[in-house]
Amino acid sequence: MKTVQMTIDEALLSAVDQAAGESQETRSAFIRVALQAELKRRQNAAMEEAHRQSFQAQPDDDVWQPSRRAWGE
């Protein structure tokens, strides 16, 4: 791991320290987990957006239409 220095608002730092204490984690561990969660959230959002755009570009209407044979038609 690499040590980094960062600037953080005092109120946010206090909230981080409280949450870290409640979960019995160090401040660093808490911040690492929070950063990993945010990066994963962004990755998922980007994948969902790419998926949404692909459906808009080429909708597959047949997927949502029941087969006439399934209804005996």
Offer a quick outline of the entry.
This protein is mostly helical and 73 residues long. It has helices at 10-22, 27-57. The protein contains 2 helices and no strands.
Structure description:
Helix content is about 60%, strand content about 0%. It has two helices and no strands. The protein has helices at about 10-20, 25-55. The longest helix has about 30 residues, at about 25-55. The radius of gyration is 23 Å and the shape is elongated.
Question: Key features?
Answer:
73 residues, mainly alpha, 0% strand
Question: How are the secondary structure elements laid out?
Answer:
Layout: H1 10-22, H2 27-57
Helix pairs in contact: 1-2
Helix-strand makeup class: mainly alpha
Bin the strand percentage: under 5%
The run of helices and strands is HH
Largest sheet: none
Q: What's the rounded overall pLDDT mean? A: 88
Radius of gyration: 23 Å
Number of strands: 0
What would the principal axes of the Cα set say about the shape?
A: elongated
Query: What's the tally of helices?
Result: 2
**Euclidean distance between termini CA atoms:** 65 Å
Unreliable parts = none
Helix content range:
55-70%
Oligomer: single chain
